[in-house]
Amino acid sequence: MTISNDDRAVAECLSVLKAAYPQYKFLTDHAMMELWHRKLSVLDSEKRRLAIEFWINTERFPPAISDIYELCSPKSLPNKDWSEAWQIVQRAIQRFGASREIEAMKWLQSEDPMTAEAARRLGFQNCCLSQNIAQERANFRMIYQSMEEKQEADERFMRLPVGLRYGERSEDIAKLDINERTIESVSLFKAGD
Questions:
Q1: What sign does the dihedral 183-188-191-193 (CA atoms) show?
Q2: Contact of 54 with 28, CB cutoff 8 Å
Q3: CA-to-CA distance for 42 and 163, rounded, in angstroms?
Q4: What single-letter DSSP state applies at residue 185?
Q5: Res 143 pLDDT > 90
Q6: Is the pTM of this model over 0.70?
Q7: Is the model's pLDDT at 15 over the cut of 60?
Q8: Please, are residues 108 and 116 in contact by the beta-carbon 8 Å criterion?
Q9: How far apart are CA 44 and CA 130, in angstroms?
Q10: Residue 10, C-beta contacts closer than 8 angstroms, at least 6 positions apart
Q11: Which phi and psi angles does 111 have, rounded to 5°?
Q12: Mind listing the pLDDT tens digit for each residue in 144-163?
């Protein structure tokens, strides 16, 4: 049986972790090593290596698997607060006005893509021409915050194992639902005898 380069890289990462935390009972038994190996092998090798190095350099205690996953997860730069994003929209309105919407949207996109999308959903023209700026600000806040929530949910979803993301569980749930209906109908039938 040949050992792949990725298996070697994961084993090396585990050895480094074990060596970095000798005072803790960390990665001591075979089952724990097997679990860590299986979980870390699905991560990008360079991200995995950098995450482990970062953890060792910054933390006194050994990581959990979820800590390494979190460090490897695709994260964009932190989003701006909705009020900061609204200030960017206000600058775009002052700079470009209603007559140069395309230029304003390109500028917003270069400043912050999420702000640009929220402004597009709200309607940049509406923001420029509105007589009730407080209402536009409140609407922008709701749009921006819902986009943030969706982005956070998407990031949590992407951290799930692939089988849970793409239907293996839904088939099991469908089978369970059929079995529950069967049990229900059988028990009703027996009760009616």
A1: negative
A2: no
A3: 13
A4: H
A5: yes
A6: no
A7: yes
A8: yes
A9: 48
A10: 37, 40, 41, 48
A11: -75, -50
A12: 999 999 988 887 777 666 66
How many Å apart are CA 143 and CA 83, to the nearest integer? 12
| Tokens found for residue 36 | 């860590």
Q: Look at the alpha carbons of 11, 12, 14, 15 in this order and tell me if their dihedral is positive or negative.
A: positive
Contacts of 133 (CB under 8 A, 6+ apart): none
19, 23, 34, 112 from 30: Cα distances, Å: 16, 18, 6, 47
Assess contact for 78 and 71: CB atoms under 8 A.
no
Q: Residue 125: which residues within 8 A CB-CB, separation 6 or more?
A: 98, 101
Longest dimension (CA), the chain: 80
Q: State the DSSP string of 19-86.
A: HH-TTS--S-SHHHHHHHHHHHTTS-HHHHHHHHHHHHHH-SSPPPHHHHHHHHS---SPPPPHHHHH
pLDDT of residue 28: 82
The C-alpha atoms of residue 118 and residue 82 are separated, in whole angstroms, by 10
CB 165 within 8 A of CB 157: yes
Task: Give Cα 11 to chain centroid, integer Å.
Answer: 27
- Token readout for 123 is 């309607």
How long is the chain? 193
